[in-house]
Records
---
Amino acid sequence: MTTASDTASGADATFGRHVAPSTIFTADNLDVLRGMNSACVDLIYLDPPFNSNAQYQNPFDPEARFHDVWSMDRVRKGWMLELRLKQPPLHHIITAAAVTHGETMQAYLAYMSVRLIEMRRVLKDSGAIYLHCDPNASHYLKAAMDYVFGHRNFVDEIIWHYGTPSGGRTAGKKPVKVHDTLLVYAKSYGDHVYNAQYLAYSEKYVRERFTHTDEDGRVYRTRKRAGGRVDRQYLDESKGVPLSNVWSDMKQLYAYHLVHRKREETGFPTQKPRALLERIIRASTNPGDVVLDPFCGCATACVAAEGMTNGRNPTLPEKRRWIGVDVSAKAYEMVVLRMEAELGMKETGKSGRLLTHAGELRHKVIFYEKEDAKGNLWRRTGGDVPVRTDAPQPFDLTFGEPETRSPNIREIRYIDQEGRCAADGESLALRHLNTEHIVSRKRHDGPDVDGNIQLMCQSHNSVKAEGTMRELDEKMRSRGEEPWEDRPSFILAAERKYLPPRLRP
Ligand SMILES: C[S@@+](CC[C@H](N)C(=O)[O-])C[C@H]1O[C@@H](n2cnc3c(N)ncnc32)[C@H](O)[C@@H]1O
């Protein structure tokens, strides 16, 4: 899928192999982020799942849906391990959330944390990140962001007041929800781009304050200055009201007048208005800068960046470059449809794809296959996987267990197994659990690495001896015991990886 323009543009050297502006990736964003060069984007806007315990469905397309329901089954054991070993404070924040909120929040935060770490890395020193969330998880995300970006780089918490309360929107014994939250962090506070924004004065304000008209018909108000001097402030020269951190002037799409909705609405359930993205992009980037949306949905941020114009003179184009990622292939279809319908783009390049201001539209796809029966985890199988060109050793994208033995693997496994014996799942104190090779060293030549270690109580350890987990289960059943039904997936993964092929489960 690599096009000639990828290499011709020199994008590889700046962004990483397969990564270039005007690209939509159909992929898990972690795989894209990990393959991107450091410090190559100016702005990240992300509108991830909010941990809302809901499943979203595009009414026009049964395939375009995503699950915002979380459990530790969806979180790779390797992520917790990586966080524990490489980012202990973040691991503490996540485990604290498990205590105060429960497993869903723990799983959600682990999923977000591994991605936020990469987002910080790919952001330029002058860059900023806007994390769109809501009260479901904003408090936990802020703690995670304080660690990942540093609390001194916290810029603001913006309240997007998107709707008006109505009887139809009441839910539960509480007031009607009418706002989302944007957590804004700079990579390095003070070095970040911020273009002050102004809102137009209200008609009432103009009527009441700008009460004079000069001989040329220009409207103005008078302002008393020090020393008794009186100045004229002309309305057509006034910037307006400085933007505050509560944004009430742009509504959710469904709140728009029907005519406006028809133009912009795609049917995507969590679509954000373009005006919201335009404000963010205008405030935190300059023309030509690169905007990354790693959860781009129906590509609102990409369309907004491509269609950017001057804030005061909308006929002046001030386009930004952009990169979008979404697990759903719909994002690419959407970006084409929306650029044609909303931006009036028709011109195509050599390969017949729409021509954006930064070159031909690119679609890069990473392929996956189900890793477990329920489809909680997906294994990458190939495709246009980005590869960093700025690092001598590309990151281990598989997030696999390290091929070494960690000194604290016993404690790590205690967390991974939630304090249970790997044989029957009984909860035990750590002192009653021993480390044990999942695939026997003696009988099957299993390696002495983290990925082949589990915890088991002494008595089951003797029952298993040098056998496989299946043999252990059979022996346990013959003794009238029930094997642990919800064994963590790393145990099965170890047998699949290290047992001789004929014995693999
Ligand atoms: C709330 S929606 C984004 C909506 C978007 N801001 C818009 O205006 O269209 C979240 C999106 O994240 C995508 N998503 C969830 N997990 C992802 C992942 N790991 N990598 C890439 N996309 C993901 C979902 O498919 C969904 O489209």
Note: Confidence is low (pLDDT under 50) at residues 1-8, 57-62, 392-401.
---
Amino acid sequence: MSIRSIHQCECKACQVEDGNASRYHHQLNVLMSQLDERQRRWLAALEANRLGHGGTQRMHEVTGLDINTIRRGRRELADNLVDCPAERIRVVGGGRKPLEKK
Ligand SMILES: [Zn+2]
């Protein structure tokens, strides 16, 4: 497992003030650094949705994730993540065979 660096948000709010916005952005990026790729884009998508207009661009600035990655996350979220099961799908017939030794 590789150690991921925490993205530093360089949005205007973070440069100008040391307030709630920058704390929030920092914590968001701390959280992101612990998530896997899919979870990162869903979190960014959720935040982008919350922000509304311009949210995707904003989350791109805050998290450093690619715009298209966040868009993809928003689509997946809009579809209730139906094509994105939380656990790996077992291939039918795959997995451990029942023990039948004689
Ligand atoms: Zn920021």
Note: The chain has a mean pLDDT of 87.
